[in-house]
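Good morning N.,

You mentioned wanting to compare the apo and holo forms, so I went ahead and generated the holo version with uridine-5'-diphosphate-xylopyranose. This is what I fed in:
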Amino acid sequence: MDVCVIGAGYVGLTTSAVLADLGHHVTCVDKNKDRIELLNRGICPLYEPGLEELMQKNRSRLTFSDQVGEAIRQNSVIYICVGTPPMPDGSTNLSYILSVIDDLATYIQSPKTIVTKSTVPLGTNELIRKLLIEKGVDRELFKLVSNPEFLREGTAVYDMFNPDKTVVGLEDGDTASLQVMKTLYHGIDCPFVVTTLNDAELIKFSANAFLATKISFINEIARICDRSNADVTTVASTIGLDPRIGKHFLQAGLGYGGSCFPKDLSSLIHSATEKGIKPAILEAAQFVNDTQLDFYIEKIKEHLDDYSSKKVAVLGIAFKPDTDDIRSSRSVLLIEKLEKLGLQVVAYDPKAKLPSENNHGATQVDSINEAIKDADCVVIATDWPVFKSLDWNEAKKEMKGTLIVDGRNCVDPLEVRKHGLLYVGVGRI
Ligand code: NAD
Ligand code: UDX
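and this is what came out, ligand included:
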């Protein structure tokens, strides 16, 4: 099929490359000309394992352009993959979606299947329909599909080829679009869940809210373990054996970050509140996440005498391993908090960069060794494999102090202590 993907970010680029690999002709468009220029030179503007290779493999069926209107005109399937960031009040900023609607209204001249992959609040697809009609688009010329995306950054390509489900929200009686979606995803083996537009939108928010809540749950248990001389990793792995609980998303630490969980939880809380529902569980999950960093800050203060003059090495800037994404990264927030306390912060990450607006004085260095040299304290903020397998004997020799703060509960305390270092995690013996 001929597909236009609007938005060349983590989701749009992965969607484009995967659809091209499945045999479709894809034009991926973005208003960011610099991004398109990079893509046209064969360079992926973001770090996502396997994505650049997949784009190169399928370059005969994959083109990049900043000409959004032309791409809308020429393709019968239009994917919307633009960002839906948070507003200060927690609601979703729909301005990028609204801008796409303007372009759709201007350039639709032949029948289109419009597939919303961006995560949008309940009712947004209905809003898209209403606005397109108000802007004069013939109702016969478009069908709407809500096809939320569940990929994780770091494993985006794998996830899109191997989803546990494909959710397809359709307008009433729209069997034609179901066929289009089946053709698009032909070759991907997973259950097709056909729903209404509203259900599809809410499924996406519910999935993220549930996972975020699971993380906050284990972080709360970790705090209890911490005060009780109990080990949260043992508690988590054991309760996870019960299939009703499951072993995933029970890793305690600094809390969840990223471009999805924090904003999607806020958005759902906002939507629920607007509908007169008090989202007590969602608010509690958010509260635990928001306060989890302070738990670590207190520990660092407790274990570092005269902390304000000390050097802290923060290992990890990305919100999780295998990505360069720093959106709502706990690490970046931790660095800001440490700096406010007057600590000298030196950060290292294999792929991510400190935000350009970072003007507090944290420095980023190019190697682990440079970061930990003469450090009084080392914080593992992102569980990149290279940090999990650090040689603690060597680290001890480089460091000035002995404090190791494991912000992801990802290293073995005994291994660290064996070398005369002081291990601090959350809820670990
Ligand atoms: P992103 O910020 O990486 O990319 C969005 C891209 O859209 C940007 O390159 C931007 O320039 C472009 N854009 C914005 N407005 C445009 C317009 N009018 N026309 C053309 N291009 C435009 O975002 P992302 O992380 O890929 O997320 C996209 C959507 O997918 C969001 O709704 C997000 O919640 C959802 N989502 C993201 C993930 C994830 O892991 N990143 C997973 C599932 C769902
Ligand atoms: C998430 C969802 O998993 C994915 O389905 C959705 O499409 C987008 O949002 P992503 O944000 O890429 O994916 O990363 P994820 O692996 O879910 O991790 C999110 C955050 O939770 C990270 O900061 C991670 O460190 C943290 N996390 C995850 C924990 O603190 N503990 C865990 O057990 C798991």
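The longest strand covers residues 2-6.

Happy to go through it together on a call whenever suits you.

Best,
F.
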